[in-house]
Amino acid sequence: DGEHCAFPLNDDIKKDTLFEYKLVFKKHYHKVIAKLRKYIKSNNVDVLINIESMLALYSVPACLGINIRNICWEHFNFDVDLGLKLRKISRQVAAFCCDDVITLTETDKNIWLKNARCRANITAISNPASFELSQPRQSVNSKIAISAGRLTYQKGFDFLLDAWALVIKQRQDWKLRIVGSGEDEAALKAQAEKLGLTNHIEWISHVSDMKEQYQLADLYVMSSRFEGLPMVLLEAISSGLPLVSFDCKTGPKEIIDSTCGWLAKDGDISSLAEKILTAFTVFDNDEEYAKYSQAAINKCRSEFAIEPIINLWMKLLNNEK
């Protein structure tokens, strides 16, 4: 609700909620629009930012006839609808009716421009890394590869388990640590057991300090089927971790280059295993590992630091070119 937040906010930020009780928006469509419109008018709102394109279905009619700037901030990518046909419709509505659409990557921006009738300005602004930069590592510490996220279809942990089964045929000195919980947890653990990975994987369901988990690891591996801009990769490079990831849509190739990690063919389990093994071989040399860790820190500092990203948002909000 509007009174509670999972993270600290500046005292100048006012928190409100349209309804004091839980409401299924699609079942009360007109009610939500009316309430949002009333809020906009009574608070003299200048800019409305929709977090996720589905909300354009509510904000566009709510803003009709009102002098307000309506911005859609996409947090997936254009091709992902998560099984909701309305999400595809909402993106077309946002592209045609909103003033601006913000994507997380240049790749997704180009997909919007190609596949939607865009009257809105389409701008790519990435999310910043959420952790402070760590010091680069000088050598491999514990030979732990980490992967974190919801244990769901999107995150592709089933692919990762299959890849790890190939990895351990050549390197059993490294261990995989999976951090997260979700609807596929039981199925994934059964898969790991069937693949003979019980002694090669650590499962951690809940952690209070994710940054500590990155600090304890030596490599980050991501096997997602799709993303927007994966925060786990940003968190990992801010912690000085080299990366291996599928080249899925969208985000990994915007974060990973040859200096700080490896991209595997999208959805190709053998390619993922090959890149992980390549990383292990490179990291056998401490000097090489230190170069990759430093490059990860440099990448985060140069492209995903919060200050330049704030500046991009301010330019957008102030209509500066």
UniProtKB/TrEMBL annotation:
- Highest lineage ranks of the organism? Bacteria, Pseudomonadati, Pseudomonadota, Gammaproteobacteria, Vibrionales
Q: What's the source species for this entry?
A: Photobacterium aquimaris
User: Which Pfam family is one of those matched by this entry?
Assistant: Glycos_transf_1
InterPro entries in the cross-refs: Glyco_trans_1
According to its UniProt entry, the protein's GO biological process terms are: carbohydrate derivative metabolic process
Its domain of life? Bacteria
- Which CDD domains does this chain map to? GT4_AmsD-like
Q: Where does the record place the Glycosyl transferase family domain?
A: 139-296
| GO MF entries | glycosyltransferase activity
Quote the protein name from its UniProt record: Glycosyltransferase family 4 protein
- Record's keyword terms, sorted: Transferase
